[in-house]
Design brief:
Distance between the termini: 62 Å
CATH class of the largest domain: Mainly Alpha
Shape: elongated
Structural class: alpha/beta
Number of helices: 32
C-alpha cells in the first residue's frame, strides 16, 4: 500500500465503502459519522484560507494586473456558461414522450421564500458570514480588505504574517488530506447504505441525462476548450488533479479540498517551461474570486427543470426557454436546493417534483461538484494564460473539437432517448400507481347498492342512529361514484378512495359491516333528510346552507379552491390576466354558493352547474336551453373544485392542469353530513379527534391525496439481509430437519 499513489488509495477507499454499504445496508449507516468528521476537518481550514489568501494576494496586487484578471475572468466565465446554455437547450431532446398527471402537493398553497441576496453577498457582519459559511460574503469582505491595503506604504507589516498564517493553514489541510482514503471509505459506506433504489428508479431520466451532461462537458468539451486556448494538455491536467477530483466526488463538496485544488493548478502551471512565479500567485486570487460565481456543475443541475416539466406531462415549449434560461442564470448564484423552487414556480411546474430532486441529490451532489471543480480548473487556466500572454487560438484543434463534440453529442442524445424510451416503459405512471393502491384500514364486509334507497329499518321510538347501526350491524355510507380521490372505482372495478378508506375504519371501530349507497348529483340534501344514509364520506364542502339543513360533523380536512383546465389554456394562470378577461365561464357541481364566492373576485365571469365531472371533460360546449324554441351555446373554460380533487383528476386526465388565479388562496373545509342525531354527531366528532391523533387520517391522506404508497417501514436492500441471511437460515433449517430425520427415521 505504501507504493500506491494517493488517487489509487482514494479509489480503493470509495469502492470498498460502496461494497460495504451494499453488503450490510442500514447496519453500517453509522459509517456516515466518521465521514462527517472527515468533511468537518477539511472544511475548518477552507474559509480562513480563502479569506487570508485573498487579502494577501490582492493587497500585493497592482491595479493594472487586477483589472486584467477580472476582464479575462469575466470573458471566459461567459464562454463557459454559454456552453452550459447550449447544453441546457439541446439535452432535453433526450427525453422521450411521456404523459402523466400530478398528485396534490401542499406546496400548492405555499409561497416560495425570496432569495436574501443582500445577506448572501453583502458582509454586513463578516463574522456571521464566516460562522455560517456564506462564501460569497466572505469573499467580498476579503476583496475590500485587500483593496484597502493595496496603496498603504506599510502593508507588508500585516501581509507577511498573514502569508505565514496562510501557509500554516495550507499545511494543516495537507495533513488532513493524508487520511482521505479512510474518510471517503466512511462516506461511501454511509451514503450507499441509505440509498432507496425504488425512489431513484423514477428519477432515471434526470439522472442519466445529467450524468451525460457531466461526462460530455468534463471529459470532452472543457478539455478541448483548454487545449484550444492554452499550452496545457488534458493528460497532464487529469494526471495531476485526479486524486482531488475523486475526493471531491466522495465528499460531495468542492470547498473542503479547495486548498488542494489550488495546489494542483499551480502544479499544472509549473509543468510548462515558460511560466513565472507571478502566474502561480495569481491562482490564489482567481480561484477564490471564481468560487462564488456560477459554475457549470451547478448550472447544469437545472436540467432538472425541463425534466420536471417533461415528467409532469407538459414539456417546456420554445417560448418557455428565455424564462427558463434567465431564471437559471439568477438561481445558479445560490445552492440548487434554494434556486430550483424559484425556477419551478416561475414556469408553473408542479412543486411536488422538487421532492424528486431532493431524493436525487444523494447522487447528483457528487457528480455536480466534479464538473464544478473542472469548471474552476478550466476558468483559472484560461484566465491565467490570457493574463500572462500565453493565450493562443489553435485552429486545427478547434476544427477537430467542433466535429468530435458535435458527433458525440448527437449520438449521445439519440442513444439516451432510445434508452429512456425502453426503460420508461417499466416505470408506472401516476395513474397506474393510483390503481395499485389498496385500502389501508382494516377492511370490513361490504355491499354496494345499485341505487339510493331509504334505510329499510326505521328507527325505533327513542332510538338513536348509533344504536340502530349496532342493532342492524350495518353502517350506511353515502358516496359519489366519480369523485376521486375521495371515492371512485379503480381499474379492477373496486370502490376505493380517501372517504371509502375512512368508512372501512369507522365500520371497524363500530364492529359492523358496510353498505355503500350512491349519491346522484342534486340529491344529497333530499337523501340525507329522508334517512338514506347514516353518514356521507366524500368531499363535501362546509357551508351555511348545508349547516342549516343537515347535521354536519366537525371539519376533518382543510382544502384550497382551484380551477381545473386544459394545459394549453393560459388565461387563468395569474390574477392580472384573469381579471382583464371580457368574459369567461367556469363549471361547478352542486355548490353554486362556492362558485359565487369565487367569482366575486371576477365580476365579468360566469358559472354553470354540471351534473358530474365527466360532463366537463367530455363536452367542449354545453348547450343550454333558454326556451323551447332556441338554443344557445356556452363555452366552459375551467372547472371549479378543490385543489386536492383537481390534482387527482389530472392523474387520469394528464392534459389538464390545476391553477389558482386569485392573489391568495381561498380555503374551505370538508365535513361529513350525518344523520340528524346528537348522540351520533358527538360520536363522529370524537372519532375524528381520536383517529386524527393516532395518525389514521394522515396515513390515508398521504396515500390517496399525496400519492405516497402506504407501507410499513422496511430495511433497505442489502446483500447480507436479502441474499446471504435467507440462504444461511435455509441451510440451518435443512440441517435441523436432517438431524430430526436421522433420530426419528420414517418407517
Amino acid at each position: 500500500m505504501k507504493n500506491l499513489s494517493l488517487s489509487t488509495k482514494v479509489l480503493i477507499g470509495v469502492f470498498a465503502g460502496i461494497f460495504l454499504g451494499l453488503f450490510f445496508g442500514e447496519d453500517v449507516g453509522w459509517m456516515s459519522i466518521p465521514g462527517d468528521i472527515f468533511i468537518g476537518l477539511l472544511q475548518m481550514t477552507v474559509l480562513p484560507y480563502i479569506m487570508f489568501s485573498l487579502i494577501v494576494n490582492i493587497g500585493r496586487l497592482d491595479m493594472e494586473t487586477g483589472k486584467r484578471i477580472i476582464k479575462f475572468g469575466l470573458i471566459f466565465l461567459s464562454l463557459l456558461l454559454a456552453i452550459g446554455v447550449f447544453y441546457l437547450i439541446i439535452l432535453p431532446m433526450a427525453f422521450p414522450d411521456w404523459s402523466s398527471g400530478n398528485f396534490y402537493s401542499s406546496d400548492f398553497i405555499k409561497e416560495s421564500p425570496p432569495f436574501d441576496i443582500v445577506k448572501l453577498y453583502i458582509p454586513a457582519n463578516p463574522f456571521e458570514s464566516l460562522s455560517n459559511n456564506i462564501v460569497p460574503a466572505v469573499v467580498l469582505f476579503s476583496i475590500f480588505i485587500g483593496l484597502g491595503l493595496m496603496k498603504l506604504p506599510n502593508k507588508e507589516a500585516l501581509l507577511k504574517p498573514l502569508e505565514v498564517l496562510t501557509d500554516g493553514i495550507n499545511q494543516v489541510n495537507k495533513m488532513i488530506v493524508k487520511i482521505t482514503p479512510i474518510g471517503v471509505f466512511s462516506i461511501a459506506a454511509g451514503v450507499v447504505s441509505k440509498l432507496s433504489w425504488a425512489d431513484l428508479s423514477r428519477l432515471q431520466g434526470y439522472l442519466l441525462v445529467y450524468l451525460l451532461a457531466v461526462i460530455l462537458i468534463t471529459f470532452l468539451v472543457l478539455p478541448y476548450v483548454i487545449s484550444i486556448f492554452t499550452p496545457y494538455s488534458s493528460k497532464t491536467i487529469f494526471k495531476i488533479t485526479r486524486s482531488t477530483l475523486i475526493t471531491i466526488f466522495a465528499t460531495g463538496k468542492i470547498i473542503v479540498v479547495f486548498p488542494q485544488l489550488i495546489e494542483n493548478i499551480k502544479e499544472i502551471i509549473r509543468s510548462e517551461e515558460n511560466t513565472s512565479k507571478k502566474m502561480q500567485d495569481e491562482v490564489d486570487i482567481i480561484m477564490p474570486l471564481a468560487y462564488p460565481f456560477p459554475n457549470l456543475g451547478t448550472f447544469m443541475i437545472f436540467i432538472f427543470v425541463p425534466f420536471a416539466a417533461w415528467y409532469s406531462g407538459n414539456s417546456l415549449s420554445f417560448s418557455d426557454y428565455p424564462i427558463f434560461l434567465s431564471s437559471t442564470l439568477l438561481s445558479s448564484f445560490v445552492a440548487p436546493i434554494t434556486g430550483l423552487p424559484f425556477s419551478l414556480d416561475l414556469l408553473k411546474i408542479p412543486m411536488e417534483t422538487f421532492q424528486l430532486f431532493v431524493v436525487s441529490t444523494v447522487l447528483t451532489d457528487r457528480i455536480r461538484v466534479v464538473l464544478g471543480a473542472f469548471h474552476l480548473i478550466a476558468l483559472t487556466l484560461l484566465t491565467i494564460s490570457a493574463s500572462g500572454g500565453m493565450l493562443i487560438f489553435k485552429k486545427k484543434i478547434f476544427t477537430k473539437a467542433i466535429i468530435v463534440i458535435s458527433i458525440t453529442t448527437i449520438i449521445s442524445i439519440i442513444g439516451m432517448r432510445s434508452l429512456l424510451e425502453t426503460s420508461m416503459k417499466n416505470i408506472p405512471t401516476n395513474l397506474e400507481i393510483v390503481n395499485s393502491f389498496k385500502i389501508i384500514s382494516p377492511q370490513q364486509k361490504f355491499k354496494i347498492l345499485e341505487k339510493a334507497s331509504k334505510n329499510p329499518n326505521p328507527k325505533w321510538r327513542g332510538e338513536n342512529t348509533l344504536s340502530r347501526i349496532k342493532r342492524r350491524n350495518k353502517l350506511r355510507v353515502g358516496y359519489y361514484k366519480n369523485a376521486g380521490p375521495f371515492s371512485f372505482t379503480n381499474k379492477d372495478n373496486v370502490l376505493v378512495g380517501y372517504g371509502i378508506d375512512l368508512a372501512h375504519q369507522l365500520a371497524t371501530d363500530l364492529n359492523v359491516t358496510l353498505e355503500f349507497i350512491p349519491i346522484y348529483p342534486g340529491n344529497l340534501i333530499n337523501n340525507m333528510v329522508n334517512d338514506y344514509f347514516d353518514i356521507v364520506m366524500s368531499d363535501i364542502f362546509l357551508s351555511s346552507k348545508y349547516a342549516e339543513i343537515m347535521e354536519l360533523s366537525k371539519p376533518y380536512l382543510n382544502v384550497s379552491l382551484a380551477l381545473l383546465m386544459n394545459k394549453e389554456n393560459t388565461l387563468f394562470d395569474d390574477f392580472d390576466t384573469t381579471s382583464k378577461l371580457d368574459t369567461f365561464t367556469i363549471s361547478y357541481i352542486e355548490r353554486g354558493e362556492i362558485a359565487s364566492e369565487f367569482l366575486s373576485y371576477f365580476p365579468k365571469g360566469g358559472s354553470y352547474p354540471v351534473p358530474e365531472i365527466n360532463d366537463f371533460f367530455n363536452m367542449d360546449k354545453i348547450n343550454i336551453a333558454k326556451d323551447s324554441v332556441s338554443l344557445d351555446s356556452i363555452q366552459i373554460d375551467a372547472h371549479l373544485t378543490s385543489a386536492e380533487r383537481a390534482s387527482a383528476l389530472t392523474v387520469s386526465h394528464p392534459n389538464y392542469k390545476v391553477v389558482n388565479p386569485l392573489p391568495y388562496h381561498l380555503n374551505n373545509a370538508l365535513v361529513f353530513p350525518i344523520a340528524q342525531d346528537e348522540v351520533w354527531r358527538r360520536y363522529i366528532d370524537k372519532w375524528i379527534d381520536f383517529r386524527t391523533k393516532d395518525g389514521t387520517f394522515q396515513r390515508v391522506y398521504e396515500q390517496w391525496i399525496l400519492g405516497k404508497k402506504f407501507k410499513r417501514e422496511q430495511k433497505t436492500w442489502s446483500i447480507y439481509e436479502n441474499v446471504i441471511k435467507p440462504k444461511w437460515n435455509k441451510v440451518q433449517t435443512d440441517k435441523v430437519q436432517t438431524k430430526k430425520d436421522s433420530i426419528n427415521p420414517v418407517p
